[in-house]
Design a protein that fits this description.
- The complex is a heterodimer of chains A (325) and B (356).
- Chain A is built from twelve helices and two strands, in the order αααββααααααααα.
- With 325 residues, chain A is mostly helical.
- Chain A has two domains: 14-77; 80-324, MetI-like fold, CATH 1.10.3720.10.
- A two-stranded antiparallel sheet of chain A has the order 1-2.
- The radius of gyration of chain A is 31 Å and the shape is flat.
- By secondary structure, chain B is of the alpha/beta class.
- Chain B has helices at residues 2-25, 45-59, 70-78, 93-99, 130-138, 147-152, 173-185, 187-192, 209-219, 229-234, 254-260, 303-317, 334-345, and strands at 35-40, 62-66, 84-87, 103-118, 127-128, 164-168, 205-207, 223-228, 241-243, 249-250, 285-293, 348-349, 352-353.
- Chain B has an eight-stranded mixed beta sheet with strand order 2-1-3-11-4-8-6-7. Chain B has a three-stranded mixed beta sheet with strand order 5-9-10. Chain B has a two-stranded antiparallel ribbon with strand order 12-13.
- In chain B, β12 (348-349) and β13 form a beta hairpin.
- Chain B is globular.
- The chains are: A mainly alpha (325), B alpha/beta (356).
Chain lengths: 325, 356
């Protein structure tokens, strides 16, 4: 058989041999190329894993450093640090309670003030004007609010907002400080609006039109669609935006320290001056020469870290519950 | 699981190596003997800027001073990363023991702490006695037209305004001097609050830096606060007159600050010159000290470097003093200069005095 074929088509034999050889070469080349691609893929994946792991290691080492450096004050003060109300560098008695209260009050108050605004912007840009020049303008302005450095908010607060609040206080007959918890919360509220607004806008836009049109076809008004379809669908995303805003408010230092009055006494009214954990660290860290003093400031940082972690964990749980409903 | 563990170990090793590399490069600074490194008080920074630039033009020596605060300067000197530190308060026992080797305090200049206030309608300089001042800052005197204040300022009609106190929220030498003064004149203050760079203020708002306190005072009517002399003069703020030990109501100025420092100083010059016993002295004044190690041969420093450092400090307390007054610092009084000279002459290299 073979002989017959080779006699009839000698060129094919030659070609066949050549073809065979080039097939092997090509196969080898392809195999080599594939091997190289496989290696590239492997290395790429390893690099990504390495980078991701190094992030985790960095966060863990921050936590570890905070704990190690706080040990002198943990040994000296123990649990009294959390409940103590005096901050006395002269006698080395430190208590974090006024600062904890100050941080939590200003952050949550700022959140309460900013949420109506961020939700309104999210729904306005997501539902009513998802496209168009007004939408673009508003979106860019909101993102600009997030981009302005916090020191500038501090300056604006001191020169513009504080005199206004002072006039308000004189009208109410309260001691006209001008600065205090209320002013700090107002400034924080302005600063944190973009985070919830941007995320909220994206989530509201992603509500499927089929759901909305179904509601419209049943005779719902626009408001009813937003209330009964859009917001329940986007609940988890909106809440995630709130959590982002809260995280920003908890850690904000410069703008707050310029307008909160920096008084380590527990505030007795909303217009009284207060202090926050971040601002006391920023203010006193450079000159804290005593071991227990410095270590107490670092323990304050550790406390802030833990408060942020706890709030994030609670927030994630709530989001999970929203998504599962 | 093995794969993951290996990855974790690898990334940890990489990060550790990177951080060690980073730490090693920091040691290379300042090894050139023509650059002297200093760090410390922010109070004295404007004066030092001027002095060091003039000295550089005169001798070519480069001085690099970081104004990170007195505490920071002491820390850097303890870690031997700078040649000299500068502090507005003498070393505490805790700080001195951490240094290991004895350190010398050389007074560089003096400054005053001004009591400034913002009372609508009042431009005159109000008088205060030490007792009244302490009571105001303790929070027991709450209104501007309190009888004790009115009695000291006959002829000025003081409005019925609540007193709002402004203090420093960051640790500072200014606070140190002021609280030492209050502790010296008021036993109630000494037992309730004490003195230091940062204290537990019984009342009031905190501002960051002298500029923060000055801002609070300027913007909030009825506020009283304390700032450095330079700030009060440059911002044309109202300055109170404080009664000194001789009973005179003295206004803060360069002259009255020099008078405050014209007393016999202890040999190591570690003294708070508050409530000074001298005549015409302003009672709330203080020195700022340059800090160096007594024995200059440490960490492989050369004799040349030690010599240059001491010559720089010698120049500071002699020819450099002419630059103090234009910048509203008080130059050293003759008594203080004598003490400073003696201290500089006691610095040694390998046991032998450096300056003859």
């Amino acid at each position: 058989m073979d002989n017959n074929q080779s006699n009839i088509y000698p060129q094919n034999v030659f070609a066949g041999k050549y073809l065979n050889k080039s097939l092997t070469v090509k196969a080898a080349k392809t195999a080599k190329h594939s091997n190289k691609q496989i290696r590239v893929e492997k290395v790429f994946k390893q690099a990504l894993v390495l980078i991701a792991l190094s992030m985790v290691i960095i966060v863990l080492s921050i936590f570890f450093t905070l704990v190690v450096q706080s040990l002198p004050s943990i040994k000296a003060l123990g649990w009294k640090f959390l409940g103590g109300k005096t901050w006395d560098p002269v006698n080395n008695v430190f208590g974090a309670y006024p600062f904890l209260i100050g941080t939590l009050i200003t952050s949550f108050l700022a959140l309460v003030i900013s949420v109506p605004f961020s939700f309104a912007i999210a729904i306005f840009l997501g539902e009513y004007y998802p496209k168009g020049w007004l939408s673009e303008l508003l979106k860019n302005v909101i993102e600009l609010i997030a981009a302005i450095p916090s020191v500038i908010y501090g300056f604006w607060g001191v020169f513009v907002l504080v005199p206004i609040v002072r006039d308000l206080e004189t009208k109410f007959g309260i001691l006209p400080y001008g600065i205090g918890i209320f002013t700090a919360s107002l400034i924080l509220a302005v600063m944190i609006v973009p985070y919830a607004a941007s995320l909220g806008r994206e989530v509201v836009r992603m509500v499927p039109s089929a759901l909305k049109e179904g509601a419209y076809s049943l005779g719902a008004t626009r408001f009813e669609v937003i209330k009964n379809v859009v917001v329940p669908y986007a609940k988890s995303g909106l809440f995630a935006g709130i959590l982002l805003s809260l995280g920003r408010a908890l850690g904000e230092t410069m703008a707050v320290t310029m307008v909160i009055g920096n008084s380590p006494l527990i505030p007795d009214s909303i217009f009284a001056p207060g202090h926050t954990m971040a601002s006391v660290i920023a203010n006193e860290f450079t000159e804290a020469a005593d071991t227990v003093y410095l270590s107490s400031l670092i323990e304050m940082g550790l406390l802030l870290f833990l408060v942020t972690v706890v709030i994030n964990v609670i927030g994630k749980r709530i989001i999970k519950r929203f998504t599962n409903e | 699981m093995n794969y993951l563990l290996k990855k974790i170990k690898l990334s940890a090793a990489v990060l550790l190596a990177a951080s060690l590399l980073g730490a090693n490069t920091l040691q290379a600074q300042g090894s050139d003997d023509n650059t002297i490194l200093g760090a410390g008080s922010t109070f004295v920074y404007p004066l030092f800027s001027k002095l060091f630039s003039v000295y550089n033009q005169k001798t070519g020596l480069q001085v690099n001073y970081q104004s990170i605060g007195s505490g920071g300067g002491i820390l850097q000197l303890t870690n031997k990363t700078v040649d000299f530190g500068d502090s507005d308060a003498p070393l505490t026992d805790d700080q001195a023991s951490k240094m290991g080797a004895p350190a010398l305090h050389i007074p560089m200049c003096a400054g005053a702490v001004v009591i400034t206030y913002n009372l609508p309608g009042i431009t005159a300089n109000l008088n205060f006695t030490p007792a009244v001042l302490a009571n105001i800052f303790l929070g027991t005197v709450k209104m501007w037209n309190d009888p004790s204040i009115v009695a000291l300022n006959k002829g000025i009609s003081i409005p019925a305004f609540p007193i709002i106190i402004a203090h420093r929220t960051d640790g500072s030498g200014t606070t140190n001097i002021f609280t030492h003064y209050l502790s010296a004149v008021s036993p109630a203050w000494a037992s309730k609050v004490g003195s230091g760079g940062a204290v537990n203020w019984p009342a009031g708002l905190g501002g960051k830096g002298s500029e923060g306190v000055a801002g609070l005072v300027k913007q909030t009517p009825g506020t009283i606060g304390y700032v450095e002399l330079a700030y009060a003069m440059q911002n044309k703020m109202t300055q109170a007159k404080i009664q000194n030990t001789k009973g005179q109501f003295v206004a803060p100025s360069v002259a009255s600050t020099i008078a405050a420092s014209n007393i016999t100083l202890p040999a190591d010059s570690k003294i708070f010159i508050v409530n000074s016993a001298a005549a015409n002295a302003y009672p709330i004044a203080g020195f700022t000290w340059a800090l160096i190690y007594k024995e200059q041969n440490y960490s492989g420093r050369s004799a040349v470097r030690a010599q240059k450092l001491l010559q720089l400090l010698w120049w500071n307390i002699h020819e450099g003093q002419q630059y103090c007054e234009p910048l509203t610092y008080a130059p050293l009084s003759p008594a203080a200069t004598k003490t400073a000279e003696a201290i500089l002459k006691s610095a040694t290299y390998n046991g032998k005095a450096i300056l003859k």
